[in-house]
Design brief:
Elements: H1 2-24, E1 42-46, E2 60-61, E3 65-66, E4 69-77, E5 84-88, E6 93-96, E7 99-107, E8 110-111, E9 117-119, H2 121-124, E10 138-144, H3 149-152, E11 165-169
Antiparallel strand pairs: 1-4, 2-3, 4-10, 5-9, 5-11, 6-7, 7-8, 7-10
């Protein structure tokens, strides 16, 4: 009987020790980096309100060349009576070593450049759609001019680019 009590008590001690070890050394540990950019008066997001992708794939096919990436977006604003200006921070281009292929970025069918493009408040925020602070739904697209000879026969390898769209309230 004493042996049975000892085994039972030592079994509980071993179980407690194993549980403590498992909590100190989990099977796996996940780390998730979270980031966001907060604009004080304007924000662009997917039309469902979710954040825009921070990375996109621009498919290339030897027969059809580059495919344009497009998403439906909205602009959220704390001021529906001010026009909104959109521009690119720098001219975006896909780069692979010293090779470069210019990118085209369009918002609502208008090509953006480093010069501000003004979108009128009345167009963006008509009374019927200005619920929740969001604009009308607009397409945002990133693509390549496939008539560019470099786009038709790019060098093999990874091509990368940064597209930075800047929004501001027009004065």
């Amino acid at each position: 009987m004493k042996i049975k009590k000892f085994l039972s008590a030592s079994g509980l001690a071993v179980s407690a020790m194993l549980a403590a070890m498992n909590s100190a050394y989990p099977d796996t540990q996940m780390q998730i980096a979270v980031s966001t950019y907060v604009g004080s008066t304007l924000q662009m997001s997917n039309s469902d309100g979710s954040p825009l992708d921070t990375e996109i794939a621009l498919p290339w096919n030897p027969a059809t060349f580059f495919t344009t990436w497009t998403r439906s977006v909205v602009i959220s604003s704390s001021n529906h009576t001010s026009d909104v200006q959109a521009r690119l921070l720098t001219p975006p281009a896909l780069r692979n070593g010293s090779d470069s292929i210019p990118l085209k970025v369009q918002l609502n069918g208008t090509q953006l450049s480093t010069t501000p493009m003004t979108y009128s408040a009345s167009m963006l925020f008509p009374a019927s759609t200005a619920t929740g602070g969001n604009s009308i739904v607009m397409p945002l697209s990133v693509g390549v001019d496939n008539t560019n000879p470099m786009a038709r026969k790019p060098a093999s390898g990874m091509w990368i680019a940064a597209v930075q769209v800047v929004l501001s309230q027009a004065s």
